[in-house]
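Researcher: I've been going back and forth with a colleague about how diguanylate cyclase might be arranged in three dimensions. Neither of us has a model we trust, so I'd like an independent prediction. The organism is Pseudoduganella lutea, in case that matters for your notes. Sequence below.
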Amino acid sequence: MPAEARARSIAIIAVVVSILVAAIPFFINSRVSEGVPQLKLAADRQTAYTDLLGMLRDVESGQRGFALSGLDVFLEPYTAAVLEIPSLKRELMKGALDAQERDAIRQITELTDAKLANAADSIAARKNFGAAPDSLYASTALGKAQMDKLRGLIGKQITLMAERRDRARKTLIDGSAQVAYFSAFAGLFNALLLGTAAFNVRRLFRDRAHAADQLKEAIALAETRNAMMSGSARLLQALDSIRTLDDTSAVLTPCLTALLPNVSGTVYLYRDANDVLEPLASWGADAARSAIASEDCWALRFGRAHDHHVETDLCCHHLQGDPHRHHLCIPMVTQGAVLGLMSVKVDQLPDRNFALHRELVTVLAEQVSLALSNVRLREALREQSIIDPLTDLYNRRFLEESLKRELARSVRNRAPLSVIMFDVDHFKRLNDTFGHDAGDVVLKAVAAATKAAVRKADIVCRYGGEEMIVVLPDCAQGMAMERAEMIRRAIESVRIEHGGREIPQVTASFGVASHPNFGLDGDALVRAADAALYVAKRRGRNNVQMAA
Ligand SMILES: Nc1nc2c(ncn2[C@@H]2O[C@H](COP(=O)(O)OP(=O)(O)OP(=O)(O)O)[C@@H](O)[C@H]2O)c(=O)[nH]1
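Model: Here is an independent structure prediction for diguanylate cyclase. You can compare it with whatever you and your colleague have in mind.
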């Protein structure tokens, strides 16, 4: 039964028992008011019988005294008794308690009357005939016999009344004792009930307080979980908008700081090339910010999340300067390949909140891992669609897009822009002499040399075959001519070996065209550079020509 229902039942029983206890005085009163009159009645009747016997004794002694002495003084108690006896007899008969007593009183009355008649005769005879005639003795002897009988009858009634009185007294005493026992029992029972009720009520209050605490805790937990959920949704949304891995830190750092404010942590990115994990984003005061080797982390070795919070736990090598705190490392793995690692440090010992944080960190690691994998995939796809696979230079499609964009920017900023177009000289002959593979190797070497000779902001593209274009934003014609000359010299100085044979010096011819000299059209610019290149070919190759 629930504590609340139990407390209610006990309270009801306690009220009922209290009402019963309150009724006890009335019960006692009724027992007393019944018993006391019976006791008084028996006592009164006993007194009446005793009085009758006393009066009969007075009659007897008066009768004898007068018979022996003839003195009137003996007749005084006799006379008083004779006067009292009739009313006493009536009183006794009137108050007779049952048929048996009525019979006894009738016998006593008859015998009393006979005794009084005998006494009257005897007294009259003494008065009339003097002392001690034979009839007087005989009458006195009869009177004595009557008196003995009366003593017996009345004595019996006195005994009966005494017994009745004892019974009434006993009933009263027993009743009182019962009431006392009942009162004591009821009092004890009530105290027990009230104690139980108090205990239950206390437990009820305690249970309620406990339930309220639990509810408060559950609400706080739900709020934390909600905050975590919405924070993690925001992070996911932000991660989804990332285009390159370089942008990741700008998203991860503020989002993870907001989501895990009481911990410090680092998200590492695995670099396959040199088998190290480089910090991609870190948050919190104690975050690690240097690269770690993959074998320095137990989580990466085991391929699952690894906790370290007691000294007996295996401690990752990259955390060894800090062995007494709680650490959690979660590997970020997608499709069986390690992508990185999320490592967090917490000050407090693991508790209910920590469990929630652990759950969140695990979920976040999964989300970040998925997002990073998407970014990588996106980067790879994008590169595949804009990068020429042989030379690793941008392809013609990218050139068209970027030339249009860069030209628009130049117009907006009123800045110059130049295009260098070049073509490897006698490439067909090279292919024919050394083979197509050797031609590919030469194209790669030319591309690498060109990239090394230009600024990072310049866009180097393979325009088609052995033809290449360099777009130079913020570069006027004079500077572009110088840059083309640098590239020409760089290609000229490349030494290439293929198949154990040294390939003769490679050269290229260059045409340069610049904006704003050739309008706003990218195609016009490229056509002008091409025309200049054609001039360079005609002028003996391996030279740079400016568009007319
Ligand atoms: N190995 C290799 N050859 C290519 C590639 N693309 C184009 N070629 C070849 O490059 C040669 C270009 O020859 P041409 O256009 O006659 O020009 P050229 O021989 O360099 O002569 P000039 O430009 O006048 O000096 C052709 O034989 C193409 O087959 C490539 O990706 N690899």
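Researcher: What would you highlight for our discussion?
Model: I'd start with this: The radius of gyration is 67 Å. After that, consider the following. Residues 390, 423-429, 431, 436, 439-440, 443, 465-466, 537 surround guanosine-5'-triphosphate (CB under 6 Å).
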